[in-house]
Design a protein that fits this description.
- The model has no long low-confidence stretch (mean pLDDT about 90).
- The chain folds into two domains: about 170 residues, Rossmann fold, CATH 3.40.50; about 210 residues, Rossmann fold.
- The radius of gyration is 24 Å and the shape is globular.
- With about 400 residues, the chain is an alpha/beta fold.
- The longest helix has 15 residues.
- The strands form six sheets. The protein has an eight-stranded mixed sheet with strand order 12-11-8-13-16-17-19-20, sandwiched between helices. The protein has a five-stranded parallel sheet with strand order 2-1-3-4-5, sandwiched between helices.
- It has 14 helices and 21 strands.
- The chain binds cytidine-5'-triphosphate.
- The site of cytidine-5'-triphosphate has 15 residues, from helix 12 and strand 16.
Length: about 400
């Protein structure tokens, strides 16, 4: 089993998402891991030590100053006798304590004393997640080498508010544990992939830019799906408002030229999936200073210059990946244009989608695509962007030539 003999120290902190930790314990154990639970005082307001103990088949540690527990294992041994410390849910309060190195209860003391890898699954109200203080703490923790899974976008259990803050699902957390412990084996294990996603922003002057409606959802979902199949994925993302996908190395860029540089720097790779809605043109000689309105002069004329075509560059590269996948955003003659694009861009597969305004695909959460390759055209039914990503990742693993 994937996590056979792995010892997970699971710290459960306070929050309604603690109920999902019960399922998480089950899933980790089903993969062969042993789970030793530590609960903060607040978490016991949401789930009981009895339930956590029953599901983990382990003693549940709750007190720093417990004579029995200290004689039995002690907090330093708890911190070290494991392969991974997993904090799920990780509350804003516990993240703050970790960032500052506070140690005033069992959970925070273990985290400070541990020399093991730490994975946290934050869960909190979106306002708390986006608060400046939390952002500072998260940046500090990332710099300290703490691994994050989520939070995800979704509705909050208590308030119905939507936004970033929902804890990752137990399955996603268990997958992240597998990846961190290097035990995940998928059909793409040992393979490298580069994915581009999102729009590009092409500056007009320091405050204005040309952009498009791409949300990055499809590209990000594909990066995550390839990682779930075991690939080592680099995502090069234009400016988006969604979170970096779990288990993926994300590089943030703004302009098409930066995106191309970032992609070329990651070659050679086995797989390239170019999903970004790269601006075809940039403003030639963008102004260094803000362009001012001047009485009587009328609006400025913008001269455009052609941007590099990233897909085409990769498709014809001397270090061309073994499998190159592009997207075709079309509003008419979808198939014919896609077949032409396949040839012109040197791609093995073109995923063609109809982005005419009535389909609401660009920026939306669903997609309807045709898969065009030398083998012909497959018409996939309407499905969520996550499902498209899942199926495309599987198709890529089938089409990819052996190493
Ligand atoms: N693409 C790219 N770099 C560009 C433009 C597009 O890498 N400068 C990639 C996209 O990521 C996508 C594919 O090319 O995978 C198709 O993009 P699309 O805009 O549909 O095609 P174009 O080549 O711009 O053709 P047209 O505007 O004629 O439809």
């Amino acid at each position: 089993m994937e996590l056979s003999d792995k010892r997970i120290l699971l710290i459960i902190s306070g929050g309604i998402a603690a109920y999902k930790s019960l399922d998480l314990i089950r899933r980790l154990r089903a993969r062969g891991a042993s789970v030793r639970p530590v609960m903060t005082a607040a978490s016991q307001e949401f789930v009981t030590p009895l339930a956590v103990g029953a599901l983990s088949a382990s003693h549940v540690y709750t007190e720093l100053f417990s004579r029995e527990d200290e004689q039995d294992v002690g907090h330093i041994r708890l911190a070290r006798e494991c392969d991974l410390v997993l904090v799920a849910p990780a509350s804003a309060d516990l993240l703050a304590k970790m960032a500052y190195g506070l140690a005033n209860d069992l959970a925070s003391t273990i985290l400070l004393a541990s020399d093991r890898p730490v994975l946290v699954a934050p869960a909190m109200n979106p306002k708390m997640w986006s608060a400046a203080a939390t952002a500072r703490n998260v940046a500090t923790l990332r710099a300290d080498g703490v691994h994050f899974i989520g939070p995800m976008r979704g509705e909050m259990a208590e308030s119905g508010e939507a936004g970033l803050g929902r804890m990752a699902e137990p399955l996603e957390i268990a997958d992240a544990v597998g990846r961190l412990l290097g035990s995940a084996k998928g059909p793409l294990s040992g393979r490298t992939a580069i994915v581009t996603s999102g729009p590009t922003h092409e500056p007009i002057d320091p405050v204005r830019y040309i952009a498009n409606r791409s949300s990055g959802r499809q590209g990000h979902a594909i990066a995550a799906a390839l990682a779930r199949l075991g690939a080592d994925v680099t995502l090069v993302s234009g400016p988006v408002s969604i979170a970096d996908p779990p288990g993926v190395h994300t590089i943030h860029v703004e302009r098409a030229e930066e995106m191309l540089r970032a992609v070329e720097a990651r070659l050679p790779a086995d797989i390239a999936v170019m999903v970004a809605a790269v601006a075809d043109w940039r403003v030639a000689g963008a102004a260094d200073q803000k362009i001012k309105k001047r009485q009587g002069e009328g609006p400025p004329a913008l001269e455009l210059a052609e941007n590099p075509d990233i897909l085409r560059t990769v498709g014809h590269h001397r270090q061309r990946p073994k499998l190159v996948v592009g997207f075709a955003a079309e509003t008419q003659d979808l198939e014919e244009n896609a077949v032409q694009k396949l040839r012109r861009k040197g791609a093995d597969v073109i995923v063609a989608n109809d982005v005419s305004p009535e389909t609401a695909i660009m920026g939306g959460s669903r997609n309807r695509v045709n898969i065009v390759s030398a083998a012909g055209i497959q018409d996939w039914p309407d499905m969520s962007k996550d499902e498209v990503a899942e199926r495309l990742a599987t198709l890529i693993s089938e089409l990819l030539p052996d190493a």
